[in-house]
Amino acid sequence: MQVFYEFDTSNILPPPDDLSLPIVKLLTHPTYQDYQSQTAALSLYANVSIKFLPPSWGSPTPASGEVRSADTLDKKEWKRRIKMYIGPAVEAFGYERIVFGSSPSPSSRGTSNAGDWFELARESFAELGTEQEDIDAVFFGNAQRVYSL
């Protein structure tokens, strides 16, 4: 039996983050180290999958249309951070135990347009050099299996 596990209060993938904290500092920050430890510990349960939700980062998901340079910078920063969190999750769970989610967690303070989040998340996976079948698993196949659709 597959059990789907999602943190309603902490949004594990990606976890809450302070966008003002530079990535270089975030890599050694206790919150990132806790994220890595928690992810590794949860992955030991073979029947646990994690949901990849819009981040709770206190700002809306950057829009798909790159209208202004500030929007482009926001999008690049979000993708850098998303990729930083995807790495440990993929290492711990593999692509077959990550399920894409389009709605923010109940604890999220930011807003998210599902289409913008979907595009940003797929681009982030693609930029990591992820195989198409693994991307398809995260964005469709795993949900089909977990939810028995």
Main traits of this protein?
globular; 5 helices; 48% helix; mainly alpha
What's the quick description here?
The protein has 149 residues and is mostly helical.
Describe the structure in your own words.
By secondary structure, the protein is mainly α. The chain has one domain (3-146). It is built from five helices and three strands. It has helices at 23-26, 30-43, 69-93, 114-127, 132-146, and strands spanning 3-4, 48-52, 98-100. Strands 1-2-3 form a three-stranded parallel beta sheet. α2 crosses α3 and α3 crosses α4. The two termini are 14 Å apart. Mean pLDDT is 83; it is low at 5-10.
Instruction: Indicate how many domains the architecture comprises.
Output: 1
Sequence of secondary-structure elements: EHHEHEHH
Which band does the percent of strand residues land in? 5-15%
Average residue pLDDT:
83
Tell me the number of helical segments per DSSP (H or I, 4 or more residues long). 5
Radius of gyration: 15 Å
Morphology call? globular
Number of strands: 3
Q: Please summarize the sheet with the most strands.
A: 3 strands, parallel
List the helices and strands and how they pair.
Blueprint: E1 3-4, H1 23-26, H2 30-43, E2 48-52, H3 69-93, E3 98-100, H4 114-127, H5 132-146
Parallel strand pairs: 1-2, 2-3
Helix pairs in contact: 2-3, 3-4
